[in-house]
Amino acid sequence: MNLLIGQAQADVINPVGAGAGTPWPFFLTMIGVFVLMYFISIRPQQKRQKQLRQMLDALAQGDEVVFAGGLMGRVTRLNGDYAVIEVAGGTQLRVQRQSIVATLPKGTLKSIE
Hints:
Blueprint: H1 2-13, H2 24-57, E1 64-67, E2 71-79, E3 82-88, E4 91-96, E5 100-104, H3 108-112
Antiparallel strand pairs: 1-2, 1-5, 2-3, 3-4
C-alpha cells in the first residue's frame, strides 16, 4: 500500500512531460502571428506606397491634383522633386512632389468652382 502512495506523490511532484516540452508550439505560434501581421498591415501598406510612387512618376503638366492639407490645383510645371501648382487664378504654389496625394479626373476643378 505504501508503495502505491509513494508513486502517486512522485507523479504530482514531477508530472510526465512538464518542463521538457518541445519549443515547436511556440515557434509555430510566432510564425502564425508574423504571417497574420504581414497580410493585415505590411502588405497593404506596400501596395499603397507602390501606387503612390506610380502616380507621382506619371504626373504631367495640366494634371489636376490634391496635395497635403486638402488643397486642389492644376500642375503648371514639374521641376525634379518639386511641382508648381496653380490653386487659383494666377496663384501658384511650389510644393514637393511627395506632398501630392491624389490626381483628379480632368474637369474636376471646373465642376467644383
